[in-house]
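Morning F.,

Quick status update on the modeling queue. The single chain you submitted on Monday has been processed. Sequence for confirmation:
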Amino acid sequence: MHWPFGGDVAGMDECAVANQSLRYKILPSIILEENIVLKKRLLAAILAGVTALTLTACGNSASTGNASSGSGNTDTSENLTTVRYAIMTNNQSQWYAVIGDETGIFADHGIQLEITEFAAGINTVDAIVTEQADIGVLADYAAVNRIGNTQDNSNLRIISRIATNAGQGATSLYVDPNKIHSLEDLAGQGFATQPGTVVDYWIAKTYEEANIPEDQQVILNCDSFASAVTVLTSGEGAAFWCSGVNAQKLEEAGFEALITLDDLDLHTDQYNITSTTFLEEHEDVVEEFLLAQQEVSEWIANHKEEAAQIIEERTGNPAEQVLAEYDALTLTIDFPQETVDHFNSIKEWAVENGTFADYDVLDYTDLSALKGAIPDAAAID
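Structure tokens below.
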């Protein structure tokens, strides 16, 4: 957990840390009181109020609050519902969050967005399961595996697609040109991945295409895409599937693109995911959330340069790189039949390889909010 003040917060829950931080802020003003009795009364009153506010903020998702319009406060927002959105760093989910917040689109839909960043989609799902987030985002392969491995007791539900790079050739296999000139040369060379992510699937399909037996497959597990880039640039690895900022870093280090996902007839879809509990209790909020995301996607399409600049200022990702990534994908809030077919193609591969028992993705998909918000976006029953 990251906070804008010093101190060790290890082992403390979120509400405890919030209470402690607020107390640190109010104590200096209290000790200036000259009257010891007034000081104690004031301290007790403030701490009681802080505790109540903090417990409300930490204990309730999708909670509604009224903004104060007192002296010096120009915030006129009222009755905004807090939605805790777990996103992936340097991912399109971050674009939705940043632009939607900066432009006020989420506020226009009655939502106060609370953003938490994670390195991978599987981490955003963990946040939902542990009730630290209301909605998360993850890519197709991670969704296939998470549902497959927890299908007997999972309350996770996919509620929409948010982006796809189908047919865009956006992601390439970057290799060390001194070691690899063809797919067959991958035999015995270090192939970097972030376990549990879609890269695992891409690597497996790459080895299949190259007919490389398992005893010649050298897979290097990394804890993030950035770590994978470091593994390659340090000479420990020779191949990695990537795009965007990571691809740019590898190109600068002398690595070259060998093939694209399109060459293997592969692509990636990304989804919004939530819990049955949150969806059942706040379907109207989820509808507004999806409507806001659709509006954000349209705003970005009409203000690409401005959007890229905002994302650079908020994330540090260069605007020119954002534009390049944007041109290589499609932002879309929907869930058409082609998305189901794509999901099933990955699932069938995993089942054939003995990863888990088969299941029906529609049992773990709830499009009620999507149909309510954008009826034409869900082309399946």
